[in-house]
Write a structure and sequence with these properties.
The protein is an alpha/beta fold. The chain is built from eleven helices and twelve strands. The strands form three sheets. A six-stranded parallel beta sheet has the order 6-11-10-9-8-7. Strands 3-5-1-12 form a four-stranded antiparallel beta sheet, covered by helices on one side.
Length: about 300
C-alpha cells in the first residue's frame, strides 16, 4: 500500500494548473491533437541528481485527466544518472501534453533542492555536522522544499515562526542587547514554555562571551541554561573554532549552528562548508538550498 500524498500537493498542483489553463484550457493541444488520441511518454532526468517531487508528477497528470496512468520509475531520494527515467505516463495524448509543464516545474525545482542538499551533505561527510535548511523558501512551497531537503539527506530547521524561538540580530538590537533578551527568555511574561527550544544568533565573539557568561551564572546558581542552540553568523572557520573554545572554556554546551557561506562548492574548489564543520560546527544552515538551488534538468519524451 503506497503512502498517501502530502496534503499540500493537490492544492499546489490545482493552483498551478489553474494558472496555466486559465478559463479555456490548452488551446494548442485541442487544436493539434485528436480528442481520441492516446499515447505514452516518459519523464527523464537529463543530468545526474537526486529526485524529489514525484507526488507532484502523479497529481498533475491525475488532475488534468483521471484516465492518465502514471507509473513511477524512481522514488524521492533516489540518486539518478543522466537519462534515467523517473516516471511513465500513458493515456489520452491531450492530457499528457497539457500536464507536462506543471509536472516538470515541480519535479525540476524540488529535485534541484534535493541535489544541492546532497552535494553539501557529501562535502561534510564524516565530520558529524548536520546540514539543514532555513525559512528562505518559495512562498507556499515551504513544506515541499523542506521535504526535498530531507530527500537530499539534509534535515529541517524550524518550519516557521510558530515552532521554535530564534533570536536574530534584529531582535537583539531592538530589545536592548543580548543580556536583555536572555533575561526575558529566562522568565519574562512572554517567555516560552519548557517544551520550546531556543536559539540565539550572535555576530561577534563579544556577544557570545556575554551569552556564555549569562548561562554560566545560571548554571552556577543551579538553574538550567536558557539557550539550546547558538547560531554563529558569518564568522568563518577561525572564528567558529575560537567560538567553540570560548563555550568549552565557559562550561556551556549549546548546539553550535553556523550560517553564512554555507553553499555547495564549485567543482575543483575547496569546500567552505567542510572547513566550517571541521572547525566545530554541529549544524550547518544554508538558505541557498531553497532560494538558490539550480533546477534539475528534467524532460518529457516520447516513448
Amino acid at each position: 500500500m503506497s503512502a498517501p500524498r502530502p496534503r499540500d500537493v493537490d492544492a499546489l498542483v490545482a493552483a498551478a494548473l489553474a494558472e496555466d489553463l486559465g478559463e479555456v484550457g490548452d488551446l494548442t493541444a485541442r487544436a493539434t491533437i485528436p480528442a481520441d488520441a492516446t499515447g505514452r511518454a516518459v519523464v527523464v532526468a537529463r543530468e545526474a541528481g537526486v529526485v524529489s517531487g514525484v507526488d507532484f508528477v502523479v497529481a498533475a497528470f491525475a488532475q488534468v485527466d483521471p484516465r492518465l496512468e502514471v507509473e513511477l520509475l524512481a522514488a524521492d531520494g533516489d540518486r539518478v544518472a543522466p537519462g534515467t527515467p523517473v516516471a511513465r505516463v500513458a493515456g489520452p495524448t491531450r492530457g499528457i501534453v497539457t500536464g507536462e509543464r506543471v509536472a516538470l516545474n515541480f519535479l525540476g525545482l524540488l529535485s534541484g533542492v534535493a541535489t544541492a542538499t546532497a552535494r553539501l551533505v557529501d562535502e561534510v561527510a564524516g565530520t558529524g555536522a548536520q546540514v539543514v535548511d532555513t525559512r528562505k523558501t518559495v512562498p507556499g512551497l515551504r513544506a515541499a522544499q523542506k521535504r526535498a531537503v530531507r530527500h537530499g539527506g539534509g534535515a529541517n530547521h524550524r518550519l516557521g515562526l510558530h515552532d521554535a524561538v530564534m533570536v536574530k540580530d534584529n531582535h537583539i538590537a531592538l530589545a536592548g542587547g543580548v543580556t536583555a533578551v536572555l533575561e526575558r527568555l529566562a522568565g519574562g511574561p512572554d517567555a516560552p514554555g519548557h517544551m520550546v527550544r531556543i536559539e540565539v544568533e550572535v555576530d561577534t565573539l563579544e556577544q557570545l562571551r556575554e551569552l556564555a557568561g549569562f548561562e554560566r551564572r545560571r548554571i552556577d546558581a543551579g538553574q538550567r541554561p536558557v539557550v539550546d542552540v547558538v547560531l554563529l553568523d558569518n564568522m568563518g572557520p577561525a572564528g567558529v573554532r575560537e567560538a567553540v573554545e570560548l563555550l568549552r572554556d565557559a562550561g556551556v554546551r549549546p548546539v553550535v549552528e553556523v550560517s553564512g557561506g554555507v553553499v555547495p562548492a564549485a567543482p575543483g574548489e575547496p569546500s567552505a562548508a567542510r572547513a566550517l564543520a571541521e572547525a566545530g560546527a554541529d549544524v550547518l544552515s544554508s538558505g541557498a538550498l531553497t532560494h538558490s538551488a539550480r533546477w534539475l534538468d528534467v524532460a518529457l519524451e516520447d516513448e
